[in-house]
Design brief:
Length: 123
């Protein structure tokens, strides 16, 4: 199994930036798929960005393209989500998730989840 732990959430004004971190540990013999997801009150869990730790495509939700960047530090087993030009509608609990076989932004396909970190953007 793989475990993931998020950090880096907080409160920021609209237009500001935050960087989230997700450290993965456990069994990762050939790389894993890792993604960021968010859950806002009254909404369904939404895929934000995802990648494969051993190279390949990155995936972004249309709502964050051009503002958010997912990146990887393989030496630290850490995936980052750089969030720029934040908007109040980005306010949500952000989760990191991992999976051995699925690539993409469908949260229901990911099997290993962190506890989440809150991001609040004020106008």
């Amino acid at each position: 199994q793989v475990q993931v732990v998020e950090s880096g959430g907080g409160s920021v004004q609209a237009g500001g930036s935050l960087r989230l971190s997700c450290v993965a540990s456990g069994y990762m013999p050939s790389g894993i798929y890792m993604g960021w997801f968010r859950l806002a009150p009254g909404k369904e869990r939404e895929g934000v960005a995802a990648l494969f730790t051993h190279g390949g495509s990155t995936y972004y939700a249309d709502s964050v393209k051009g503002r958010f960047t997912i990146s990887l530090d393989n030496a630290k087993n850490t995936v980052y989500l750089q969030m720029n030009s934040l908007k109040p509608e980005d306010t949500a609990m952000y989760y990191c998730a991992a999976d051995y076989t699925y690539s993409g932004l469908d949260p229901y396909e990911y099997n290993y989840w962190g506890q989440g970190t809150q991001v609040t953007v004020s106008s």
